[in-house]
């Protein structure tokens, strides 16, 4: 497989790029994307068989099942980061090794309905929180230990809207390539 093609499979919507100037419309769009993610994901995967769920979305990539569980795990961490940044002064967050998490028993075998249901509840709480944030709240930051990078809550909203769309595109890509798209 050509390197360019592998890169396109890894990043079908490109990399996340944050600019410090974000319009109210863009912010609203990001929150709407987060609100829609659980339903969009469920609609895409709920009809899949175990064999289909255990298919990698690209050569050397995670299975669809692992991607579904990863989204739930990752967005769980994101929600906690929002809470820390809102209640502490520039907290240093704890990073997690997503690749190792994806190797765990639950990521490889648990029914996806567990993560789908969790995402519905988590995103309902997250979106409720995000819609109530002030401009000052959006400027609050946490510190990511990989490089001691300050991440604003505004950037984190965009990052996780992108993250959900990034993984939806992974799943949509394999569904299209395999002809598994439901009418």
Summarize the structure in words.
Keywords: Cytoplasm, Hydrolase, Metal-binding, Zinc. Pfam families: DinB_2. This is DinB family protein. One of its GO terms (molecular function) is metal ion binding. It comes from Arenibacter echinorum. This protein has 183 residues and is mainly alpha-helical. The chain has one domain: dinb family like domain (Four Helix Bundle (Hemerythrin (Met), subunit A)), CATH 1.20.120.450. It has nine helices and two strands; from the N terminus they run ααααααααββα. The chain has a two-stranded antiparallel ribbon. Helix 2 packs antiparallel against helix 7, helix 2 runs parallel beside helix 9 and helix 4 packs parallel to helix 7. It is globular and about 45 Å long. The two termini are 30 Å apart. The model has no long low-confidence stretch (mean pLDDT 95).
Q: Assembly state here?
A: single chain
Low-confidence stretches: none
Can you summarize the main beta sheet? 2 strands, antiparallel
Structural class: mainly alpha
> Which CATH architecture is right?
Up-down Bundle
**Shape from CA axes?**
globular
In CATH, what is the class?
A: Mainly Alpha
Number of strands: 2
Strand order of the largest sheet: 1-2
């Amino acid at each position: 497989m050509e390197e360019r093609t592998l890169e396109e499979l890894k990043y079908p919507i490109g990399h996340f790029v944050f600019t410090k100037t974000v319009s109210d419309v863009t912010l609203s769009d990001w929150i709407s994307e987060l609100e829609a993610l659980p339903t969009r994901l469920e609609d895409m995967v709920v009809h899949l068989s175990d064999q289909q769920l255990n298919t990698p979305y690209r050569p050397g990539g995670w299975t669809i099942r692992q991607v579904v569980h990863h989204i739930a795990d990752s967005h769980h961490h994101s929600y906690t980061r929002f809470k820390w940044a809102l209640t502490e002064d520039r907290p240093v967050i704890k990073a997690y090794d997503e690749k190792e998490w994806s190797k765990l028993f639950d990521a490889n075998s648990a029914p996806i309905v567990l993560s789908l249901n969790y995402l519905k509840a988590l995103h309902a709480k997250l979106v409720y929180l995000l819609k109530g944030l002030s401009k000052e709240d959006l400027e609050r930051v946490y510190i990511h230990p990989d490089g001691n990078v300050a991440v604003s809550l505004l950037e984190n909203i965009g990052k996780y809207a992108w993250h959900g769309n990034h993984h939806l595109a992974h799943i949509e890509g394999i569904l299209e390539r395999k002809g598994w798209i439901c009418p």
